[in-house]
Every structure is written in C-alpha cells, then in structure tokens.
Design brief:
This protein has about 190 residues and is α+β, with helices and mostly antiparallel strands. It has one domain: Peptide deformylase (Peptide Deformylase, Alpha-Beta Complex), CATH 3.90.45.10. Helix content is about 25%, strand content about 25%. The chain contains three helices and seven strands; from the N terminus they run H-E-E-E-E-E-E-E-H-H. The strands form two sheets. A five-stranded antiparallel β-sheet has the order 1-2-3-6-7. The protein has a two-stranded antiparallel ribbon with strand order 4-5. The chain is globular. The two termini are about 15 Å apart. About 10% of the residues have low confidence. The structure holds nickel (II) ion (NI). Nickel (II) ion (NI) binds next to helix 2.
C-alpha cells in the first residue's frame, strides 16, 4: 500500500460497496491502520491507498482504532463547527473547514458486524472527512474557490520545491512533518 497524493485520479472516484465483507477485510483494515500510524494520521480511507472500496479507518488518541465498512451518515447536527483539517493525501496543507458538530453513522466493522455510532468532536470531524473520500471529495473542495486555489497553489509550490516539504510517492512519510503540532487539529486524515 502507498498513499495516493493530490492529483491522483483515484482520489476523485467514488468507491464501491464492499460485498461481501470477507475475512480479507480484517487484514486490509489492519494494514490500513498500520499505514495510518506510519503517517501519524487520524483517519485513512480506501481510495487513499488505491483501494476503491467503501472502507475507512479512524484512530483518535485515547481510544481504540475503528473500522467503518459501507458506512452511511444517517444523521447530522444542525450545529456547525469550524476546525482545522489536513489530509495524508495533501501533505503540508491545513485549512479550517465548517461541518456539522456531530453525526450518527451506521457501518460494519472488519468482522462484518453492523454498528451505529454517535460521534462528536474530533471523531465526528474525522468520520466526515473520511466519508467524503469515499465519494471522491477532498476537504479542500469544501473551501471557497479563492481559498481553495490558494492552498492548491501552495501545495504545488511545495511539491515542486525539491521534495523537502512534500514526501515523494514512494519515499518519506506523508504527514510526518506535522508531528508535534497541536493535538486539537483533526488533521492528516
Ligand atoms: Ni484525507
């Protein structure tokens, strides 16, 4: 597995349902969680590792890793919050994004068991960010156009700048440069 970076067409495709949820998904989920840890991220979705299936993993500090297969967000709060987000597929870029403060999500775990979860705070934020990945949507798409163009230009400048700030596709660890940044960020997902 390797991380798809901004510009990869896979990040823009809609992922397909997992059908059936076979035993191989336990290994796939474990591999994705390993990848998430390697990138020091908090969430990772199938399309980010070239797996065009509806699966994502989330690991928030202080709780166990969670696996969401064929997820549906079945409820969102009316209350919106702004929070700074980053993405393992767009290393080095951070932006405040407005989203519902809490969500209710239904999904299956890696063992094929259905569950429903009410999430708020960082968890709700990361779930929404990852769920977007399954639709081919990136967090920068949720910025006003002017701001979005600015952050894309910034990303491209860094990518062209000799690879110091932005790890190559096969080298470096995307997001590693964010180690130690404020834990309040929902980033690198
Ligand atoms: Ni992301």
């Amino acid at each position: 597995m390797e991380i798809e970076l901004l510009g990869s067409g896979l990040l823009r495709q809609k992922a397909e349902p997992v059908q059936p949820i076979g035993h191989e998904y336990r290994k796939i989920a474990d591999d994705m969680i390993d990848m998430l840890h390697a990138g020091k991220g908090v969430g990772l979705a199938g399309p980010q590792v070239g797996l065009m299936k509806r699966i994502f993993v989330v690991h928030i500090e202080g709780s166990a890793p969670l696996v969401f297969i064929n997820p549906s967000i079945i409820g969102t709060s009316q209350e919106l919050t702004r929070y700074e987000e980053g993405c393992l597929s767009i290393p080095g870029i951070w932006a405040e994004i407005e989203r519902p403060a809490s969500v209710r999500i239904q999904a299956w775990n890696a063992q094929g068991k259905p569950f429903t979860l009410d999430a708020e705070g960082i968890l709700a934020r990361v779930i929404q960010h990852e769920n977007d990945h399954l639709e081919g949507v990136l967090f920068i798409d949720r910025l006003p156009e002017g701001k979005r163009n600015k952050v894309i230009a910034k990303y491209e400048r860094r990518a062209a700048g000799g690879g110091k700030a932005v790890p190559g596709k096969n080298g470096g660890v995307p997001g590693a440069e964010k180690t130690g940044r404020a834990a309040a960020r929902a980033g690198d997902s």
